[in-house]
Write a structure and sequence with these properties.
The chain has about 575 residues and is an alpha/beta fold. The protein is about 40% helix and about 20% strand. It has three domains: about 200 residues, Pyruvate-ferredoxin Oxidoreductase, domain 3 (3-Layer(aba) Sandwich); about 170 residues, Rossmann fold (3-Layer(aba) Sandwich); about 110 residues, 3-Layer(aba) Sandwich (Rossmann fold), CATH 3.40.50. The mean pLDDT is about 95.
Length: about 575
């Protein structure tokens, strides 16, 4: 008899198989069913850059409380290929319950972990072929959680409605067979107990949203009416999401032939008055640098998402990192102000994208959003996205014959007109220009245009989003991090449970909010945590504040931090400091 402790309030399930095996379909159905059954869910995936084959896995956390971070721990593992166990062997412990085909679960005979054979493929032959084996596995998991099978039936009907009634019926039969098989194992005491996770009925009405959807919805809420992209992981899904909803929200969504075309179309649309959005990744953004510089000179509003993945060049297209701060911060010739956001949550991804449109329209500077693959491909249940306080600021004026597009003002912000709205000439030129937009090499005007940019940078600093402070104000150790590390660090700190450790999380990378000085000066030990090999944000803070970090926890394998990994590294630093 297999005896695994199932009385936990937080269970980690991992599905692992090859691309093309339907792992993502099972993941989606599983999380939706569990959520509708009253459980909190979180899921994230790691996958190879190929259409078929390789080894992909998805980690799903099921809990009685909100969970929003990746953990190494595996409580239930469903291997769907022979490569699954070798791929995940470092994460498997004696407490891991491995369920699946005999040939998959016995690949590594000496591997720790409890194993239960369920012949998914053999059972599927009685239904219509091994294509249904994954749904049988899904049904078995549903039984362990005592989830409502009727909820799963409804989702199967919805998911496969385009395939016809026969396919829907076979999938429901497969889910029932898995449910019955797991029920028999429980009744025959092959393994002991069921998962006793408390349910929260209100969760059933929550939404499940991933990072790409949140960014896309933020663009829609920001009034986006022209989006342009060239497919490049991890940002491709943002563009396709907007394309799917373009008619509903009156948007033009263009998939262009390359990234140079993307940036130039976007600038043309912005000049004409559109609220413009671009999604790309580091390699694609590199091709846009000249266009970004043109946006700086012409003061055209622009929102750009740069989905981060490991470089250089093609690098690891489907893996995660936080390597593109320097790329974005220093993109373009010469100096011009810009804003860089880095969402730490699904809610941030929505809110910051919406905010980006208002900022770029108000200050006429490019605004960048830096999510990583981990954030874009992760999702969890949320109650709502708060849209009550959202505003769409247009900041356009009707021009007259005396209109000057680049008029010098006390604030540094010139009144913005667009062609056809009034009688004025709306000029735009890549050269240094006077207030009317006419080319000039006058050194006095050149100096005034540079001062104008510095004025706008000063305004942007004052309007910057302050970092979020978490923990006791009587801290000795201060963790500094940004972007998607947010929930990973937050949960690690809960495990660490120390009153002398605090966390400063940045969702705005640049310009840096002035409050950071107070926190850094107060901290005795400053620990930067980032997913890149050089500590890019730590260096940026050091350059801005002239205050150095004491420790850096850096990861650059292409795989995200886990809660356990951050916990262990922080513990080692703090205990080492205390032993000095």
């Amino acid at each position: 008899m297999v005896n695994i402790d199932m009385r936990k309030d937080d269970i980690s399930i991992v599905l692992c198989g090859a691309a093309g095996q339907g792992v993502q379909t099972v993941e989606t159905l599983l999380t939706k069913t569990l959520k509708k059954s009253g459980f909190f869910v979180f899921a994230t995936r790691e996958y190879m850059s190929r259409v078929r084959g390789g080894v992909n896995s998805t980690t799903i956390r099921v809990s009685s409380k909100s969970v929003r971070a990746f953990v190494d721990r595996i409580d239930i593992l469903i291997p769907l290929s022979e490569e699954a166990l070798p791929h995940l062997k470092e994460r498997i412990s004696p407490q891991t319950l491995i369920i699946g085909e005999k040939r998959f679960i016995e690949v590594l005979p000496n591997l720790k972990g409890e194993k239960i054979e369920i012949p998914f493929e053999e059972l599927s032959q009685h239904i219509g072929g091994k294509i249904y084996s994954n749904i049988i596995a899904l049904g078995a998991i549903m039984r362990l959680f005592k989830a409502d099978n009727k909820v799963l039936h409804g989702l199967l009907s919805e998911n496969f409605k385009s395939k016809g009634e026969t396919i829907i019926e076979n999938n429901i039969k497969a889910a029932n067979k898995g449910y019955e098989t797991a029920d028999d194992l429980l009744k025959n005491h092959i393994f002991k107990g069921e998962f006793e996770i408390d349910r929260v009925p209100e969760v059933a009405n929550d939404y499940i949203i991933d990072g790409r959807q949140a960014i896309g919805l933020g663009a829609i809420a920001g009034g986006c009416n022209f989006a342009c992209f060239y497919p490049m992981a991890p940002s491709t899904g943002i563009g396709t999401f907007l394309a799917q909803h373009a008619l509903e929200f009156g948007m033009i969504v263009d998939q262009s032939e390359d990234e140079i075309s993307v940036i130039n179309k976007a600038l043309g649309a912005s000049y004409a008055g559109a609220r413009v959005f671009i999604s790309t990744a580091g390699g694609g953004f590199s091709l846009m640098s000249e266009g970004i510089s043109l946006a700086g000179m012409t003061e055209l509003p622009l929102v750009v998402v740069v989905g981060m993945r490991p470089g250089p060049a093609t690098g690891m297209p489907t893996r995660t990192c936080q390597e593109d701060i320097d790329l974005v911060l220093y993109a373009g010739a010469g100096f011009f102000p810009k804003v860089i956001f880095a969402p730490g949550s699904i809610e941030d991804a929505f809110n910051l994208t919406q905010k980006a449109f208002n900022i770029t329209q108000k200050y006429h500077v490019p605004v960048f959003i830096l999510p990583d693959q981990y954030l874009i491909d992760s999702y969890y249940n949320i109650n709502t996205l708060n849209i009550d306080a959202l505003e769409i600021n247009k900041n356009l004026i009707k021009t007259d014959p005396s209109y000057e597009r680049y008029r010098f003002t006390d604030s540094g912000i010139s009144p913005r007109g667009v062609p056809g709205y009034g009688n004025g000439l709306v000029d735009a030129d890549s050269h240094t220009h006077n207030e009317c937009g006419e080319i000039t090499e006058d050194p006095i005007i050149r100096k005034r245009t540079v001062q104008k940019r510095f004025k706008k940078l000063g305004l942007l600093r004052k309007a910057a989003i302050p970092p979020e402070f978490i923990g006791s104000k009587n801290f000795k150790y201060l963790i500094i991090s940004w972007g998607s590390n947010y929930y990973l660090i937050k949960e690690a700190l809960e495990k660490l449970s120390r009153d002398d450790v605090a966390f400063l999380s940045f969702k705005q990378i640049y310009p840096v909010h002035s409050s950071v000085f107070e926190y850094l000066i107060k901290a005795e030990v400053k620990i930067a945590i980032e997913q890149n090999p050089t500590g890019q944000f730590a260096k940026l803070l050091e350059n801005e504040t002239h205050i150095n970090m004491n420790h850096r926890i850096l990861k650059h394998s292409g795989y995200t931090f886990s809660v356990e990994e951050i916990f262990e590294k922080l513990k080692k630093i703090i205990e080492g400091d205390e032993n000095i």
